[in-house]
Specification:
The complex is a heterodimer of chains A (258) and B (362). Chain A is built from twelve helices and three strands; from the N terminus they run H-H-H-E-H-H-H-H-H-H-H-E-E-H-H. Chain A has 258 residues and is mainly alpha-helical. A two-stranded antiparallel sheet of chain A has the order 2-3. Chain B folds into two domains: 219 residues, no CATH class; 95 residues, no CATH class. In chain B, helix 9 runs antiparallel to helix 14. The radius of gyration of chain B is 24 Å and the shape is globular. The chains are: A mainly alpha (258), B mainly alpha (362). Strand 1 of chain A pairs antiparallel with strand 1 of chain B. Bound molecules: protoporphyrin IX containing FE.
Chain lengths: 258, 362
């Protein structure tokens, strides 16, 4: 076994991938972080308090891990799911009955809920350690935007099963847009906006219409939420997570007493 | 009636939003005041056992199980226990740090030059967490099937229709505020307010370690917002609201025919008809004048008047005009989330200002 191991580690293939020896001493351990693009998200050394679970609760890391898990299960789900009123519901049923080990949807759904909890607790930890204070003010703001996006990710995904639970939850939520001041047709002030005596903001032109692509939660809304859920929001989230991680390092790593 | 039914009836009774919110707030204040004693591990274990025991016993009740045990509501239970645990963890460390600072001892978090290598120390922890989280997710997925109801049908409206659980605090606010406030203005203010925190909070202390003593006001305000105005409202909105958004205790069956008398009055009616015994003015502006005066006075007079208080004045001097005004407006809107419900419970107030013609009701 030992021989085989050292044969593999000395082979050209292995050495071309990992450009350092087994991380046993300080130099190779530093190399392990520096020469790997994924691990290189980390600094090489870190404050002792920063690795203690009781300090960070690892909630930011957990949020990120759940985001990865959601991405992977989400991509797999996309193979089976068609976002039209005709197919969406039967496709969801098939996920459970037809597919081997049909846990994909379960993992994706509970992972999404868990991500919401994790991100709230991450924010709570950041707040309670005062980690938003200078120089980390801006990263907190990036975090708040991520918070909104993660909740919107969950919300847009909620519609996709296209069952009673889905359309009515989204109806309740999107009805709020109807009440946007000036921009919703039942919002304060919108009746003041007229053009040539005609109301400018009505059920066919207001904020809710824009959100749903129609006056009601129907096929346009399904398509819109599908694209938002699978492409648009994740795309923005990936960019912002990159900024977030970059800033954690540039702002001096995990916070700690000065 | 046996003892268990009596206890259940009593709990149903005291779960009414006004009592539940009041009790939660009281508990919250007690925890923050006596955090040093209450976070003692022995006290924490008693609380943990009591809440797990209470939860488990409640699961025997079929009405409780029907709503709390619903797969989509399981995350709320997780949220409650995890928030409780992490609140304890944070306040415990704050208590230790605060005691240490009084004695001039070093903090739990140590000095900046205490460093370790990321490989293996951090990478190892991340890997373990990823494994544990994967296992938890898979077990969770096996234990609870993802819910799927009847196919979407635009002509059958479920009663109650609820948003996803993480928005239910806002939906619960709809009891007290119109959609434009609960659904648009408040969410925007929450996002804006959160973003503004680092720029409003000028207290340089408590950066990078757990403490309560050095940041009492900031921590009190934020935790009140998160724990009471967000998490507790989610609990009420999900567990205690049944058909027609009527209140139901945790052990009560959801009866769609439960009738609740609604006798809410507007401030204008209170003012003109009940206090002055006059007919309501025809001019809407005049009709709503008392409410407008009260509301604008609330927003515009309290910030300058508060400066009479010494500590507020010192705060103002540190913060400057813009930060102070922003903080006050945000704080006053947050307080309104408490004041309006209290007015509803005490004097049946519906709207402070009401222009139904323009959907403008506060
Ligand atoms: C997709 C969502 C998010 C991800 C993946 C994420 C990830 C992380 C990670 C991995 C860290 C390193 C330390 C730790 O784990 O605690 C971190 C730090 C930080 N996060 Fe987040 N985060 C997210 C959302 C948020 C939110 C909602 C906030 C606040 C509103 C926030 C504010 C911060 C700040 C200020 C730091 C620096 C803390 C320090 O240096 O101690 N993040 N984040």
């Amino acid at each position: 076994m030992g021989k085989l191991g050292s044969y593999i580690r000395n082979s050209q293939v292995w050495k071309s991938i990992f450009r350092h020896g087994v991380p046993r001493d300080r130099r190779t351990r530093v190399m392990a972080i520096m020469s790997n693009v994924f691990l290189h998200l980390h600094p090489v050394t870190i404050r002792k308090s920063g690795v203690r679970l009781s300090y960070t609760w690892c909630m930011g890391g957990l949020t990120f891990f759940l985001f990865l898990a959601e991405t992977i299960t989400g991509i797999l789900l996309m193979f089976y799911y068609r976002p039209t009123p005709e197919y969406a519901f039967p496709d969801i049923i098939a996920l459970r009955s037809v597919i081997t080990l049909g846990l994909l949807r379960e993992i994706h759904r509970w992972g999404a809920h868990a991500m919401i909890i994790a991100i709230w607790l991450h924010m709570m930890r950041v707040f309670l350690t005062g980690s938003y204070k200078p120089p980390r003010e801006f990263n907190w703001v990036v975090g708040v935007i991520l918070l909104v996006l993660v909740m919107l990710l969950s919300f847009t995904g909620y519609l996709l099963p296209w069952d009673q639970l889905a359309i009515w939850a989204i109806t309740v939520g999107s009805n709020m847009a109807r009440a946007t001041p000036f921009a919703g047709h039942e919002g304060p002030g919108s009746s003041l906006l007229t053009l040539g005596g005609q109301p400018l903001v009505h059920a066919g032109s207001d904020a809710k219409f824009m959100l749903l692509g129609g006056p009601l939660v129907d096929e346009n809304a399904l398509l819109r939420f599908y694209v938002l859920h699978c492409v648009f929001i994740p795309f923005v989230v990936v960019i912002l997570i990159s900024v977030h991680f970059w800033r954690v390092r540039k702002d001096g790593g995990i916070s700690g007493p000065l | 009636m046996d003892a268990i039914t009596q206890i259940k009836d009593w709990i149903n009774l005291v779960s009414r939003p006004e009592i539940f919110l009041g009790a939660a707030t009281l508990l919250f204040v007690l925890i923050l005041v006596f955090y040093k004693q209450l976070t003692h591990p022995a006290a924490a274990i008693v609380v943990l056992l009591a809440s797990v025991g209470g939860y488990a016993a409640s699961m025997l009740d079929k009405n409780f199980r029907a709503i709390v045990g619903k797969p989509d509501n399981v995350p709320i239970t997780m949220l409650l226990f995890m928030t409780g645990f992490f609140l304890w963890l944070a306040l415990r460390q704050a208590a230790v740090n605060d005691t240490r600072m009084e004695r001039g001892e070093p903090l739990l978090e140590g000095k900046p030059d205490d460093k370790v290598l990321v490989w293996p120390d951090l990478v190892y922890i991340e890997f373990m967490i990823a494994c544990v989280c994967t296992i938890v997710l898979i077990v969770w997925a096996i234990a609870f099937a993802a819910p799927l109801e009847e196919p979407a049908n635009p002509s059958i409206i479920p009663n109650p229709s609820k948003a996803p659980w993480y928005f239910l605090g806002l939906q619960e606010m709809l009891v007290y505020f119109d959609p434009w406030l609960a659904g648009v203005v408040y969410p925007s203010l929450i996002i804006l307010g959160l973003c503004a925190i680092p720029y409003i909070d000028v207290n340089p202390k408590g950066n990078g370690y757990y403490t309560l003593k050095e940041r009492r006001f900031a921590i009190f305000t934020w935790l009140f917002g998160f724990l009471i105005l967000w998490v507790v409202l989610i609990v009420i909105g999900t567990f205690f609201r049944g058909p027609n958004w009527n209140f139901f205790g945790p052990y009560e069956a959801w009866d769609p025919n439960k009738a609740v008398a609604m006798v809410n009055v507007n401030l204008s009616e209170l003012f003109w008809a009940i206090w002055l015994h006059k007919p309501m003015p025809d001019n809407p502006l005049l009709r709503e004048l008392p409410g407008i005066v009260v509301f604008l006075g609330y927003l515009m007079l309290i910030p300058p008047l508060a400066l009479v208080v010494r500590p507020v004045r010192r705060l103002y001097e540190k913060m400057g005009f813009i930060r102070y005004s922003l903080m006050m407006v945000l704080a006053l809107f947050m307080a309104l989330m408490v004041i309006k419900p209290v007015l509803r419970w005490t004097v049946d107030l519906k709207y402070i200002i009401s222009f139904p013609e323009y959907f403008f009701n506060i």
